[in-house]
Amino acid sequence: xxxxxxxxxxxxxxxxxxxxxxxxxxxxxxxxxxxxxxxxxxxxxxxxxxxxxxxxxxxxxxxxxxxxxxxxxxxxxxxxxxxxxxxxxxxxxxxxxxxxxxxxxxxxxxxxxxxxxxxxxxxxxxxxxxxxxxxxxxxxxxxxxxxxxxxxxxxxxxxxxxxxxxxxxxxxxxxxxxxxxxxxxxxxxxxxxxxxxx
Amino acid sequence: xxxxxxxxxxxxxxxxxxxxxxxxxxxxxxxxxxxxxxxxxxxxxxxxxxxxxxxxxxxxxxxxxxxxxxxxxxxxxxxxxxxxxxxxxxxxxxxxxxxxxxxxxxxxxxxxxxxxxxxxxxxxxxxxxxxxxxxxxxxxxxxxxxxxxxxxxxxxxxxxxxxxxxxxxxxxxxxxxxxxxxxxxxxxxxxxxxxxxxxxxxxxxxxxxxxxxxxxxxxxxxxxxxxxxxxxxxxxxxxxxxxxxxxxxxxxxxxxxxxxxxxxxxxxxxxxxxxxxxxxxxxxxxxxxxxxxxxxxxxxxxxxxxxxxxxxxxxxxxxxxxxxxxxxxxxxxxxxxxxxxxxxxxxxxxxxxxxxxxxxxxxxxxxxxxxxxxxxxxxxxxxxxxxxxxxxxxxxxxxxxxxxxxxxxxxxxxxxxxxxxxxxxxxxxxxxxxxxxxxxxxxxxxxxxxxxxxxxxxxxxxxxxxxxxxxxxxxxxxxxxxxxxxxxxxxxxxxxxxxxxxxxxxxxxxxxxxxxxxxxxxxxxxxxxxxxxxxxxxxxxxxxxxxxxxxxxxxxxxxxx
Lengths: 198, 561
What we know:
The structure holds 2 protein chains of 2 kinds. By secondary structure, chain A is an all-alpha fold. Chain A is built from 6 helices and no strands. In chain A, 73% of the residues lie in helices and 0% in strands. Helices cover 67% and strands 0% of the residues of chain B. The radius of gyration of chain B is 24 Å and the shape is globular. The chains are: A mainly alpha, B mainly alpha.
């Protein structure tokens, strides 16, 4: 009885289901989006409500170069996945390295920005509502970038040590979905914090 | 067929008979990634907390039974209602429903395990850790400040009560962290359920053939992503406020206490539906089997569920009518709250239509399911009353509201959980629960429930606010509170009978066999308990009721699709 439930009538038709990696990552992205939405709503709600300075107009500069780097890294990670699908492991590793470099530049720029804000402008997370919402939203995004960089670096290390073949292309694709999501969130954060909120 | 006979004669209890003794047994359960074992651990851990939170409820009912009582002191009372609410929602409701989901979904869709077994184990253990962390606050909550033990801020923890100034010590931190962690566990399991349902179905198990239980778990899990994540975000904000000196909910620095209310109820109201949809899911499986009819209106049921999922995301501010959101917001949330009664009504009518003309068997699971139908209707009707904002202004934060939501949580959800226990216990253990004890449990619990929660509406209408520690004798609430408290003790006795039944039947229960209820979904096609690999060969299905097709080859469902 523990064997098959045999209802053998029609010839078995084509039976395909979505990849569980892609579905799992899609679910994670939906959940993470909800978290970011709440932080973005809090940022917008508190825009201009700080009781003391400094204000965004006084201290924030447009991080154009960092933004270009981060958004370009979506393109490079796409090529990394593409080449791995074609089993061009070495080329894929180079694209991965480029992605990590671009993401790393973004993080360095964020660090420099925070250094300037904290040391020169005396804006910390406890200074005012702007500080609280700014550091938590941008910090939440930056922490996601760091997690992505960690995972991409692991993939790169595996690739350099020759452990990666085109069989892993789907896994790298799942990781690239996360990376695209992190980039897309930055578009929202950039718009809200540096364009509309300034 | 030889395997079937031997399997029915002695239910295989792999863990109990495995060599190596107690340590090996513990190792096996701690390291397992089997969805059935994880499901059972979820259920056992939820039952443990059900008893703990139930005792907390009893202590509160003793305190409120008579006027001017001093059975517990006011601070203890605050901790009791905070811990009772938090525990029941996060460490009883969620884990017990995820436990049944974990156990049943792979079996019902013909899969050998969940999509991500290790994530499944991680989600369980982090949820369990969160529960114990919450109760560890009783020992460690006072921290270095010597103020407070367990959290006492209420289960929705309104700002600015949770600010450092008003909640010194660590009790609120324990509350925040345990909810944050349990949220991570819930998201992990929800993700797993969605991936399992979409990617692990056996051949022929199209979405249009999924058992309704699986459909409802799919919707509930999708809701978890958009409902629990906001709570996680709000808890991160609260932690930033408490530890880093942020100002999210700090009204002195321009922060807003109302923002916390919004964020909490954006989670809080969908959460009610996250808890109730699995109860509906059980009803969808149990009512047809004991009516000996296929469910009425399968597509309408799916559509109504998805409808509830969407509408429930837009009703949260009906918890906030008394804040003063303005006439247009009040009208909007009154409207959406009333609209959600439409898909819910569709479900009730479909269940009634399933019963209609059926050959109804009044076994214990069915008794609970029928009581659920009536009680859920009443709970829904008081919900409609409260959705009208002028009415809500009168009764918000009164015992009427407490009675209303306990009618949902106990009268609907807990009744269906009991129903699910009687229905699936044979599958999980290989033995039937005692029907005699089950009937005692049912009738006593029914009487206790109605004594408690029917009469709880009345002191609410008479103006008794929730969360008060005690009251004066001249208010006219005393007799009602005494009835409510005595009902609570009848429920407690009934629950003891239930626990005794669980333990007794584990050893002495009648051997169940693979399919004691003559049911139609795939979990009944394997032995009870199922082997660790579930299905020796992958099943193939051709209709919504594969076992019906198997038992009635002359008239298969497949020919009607």
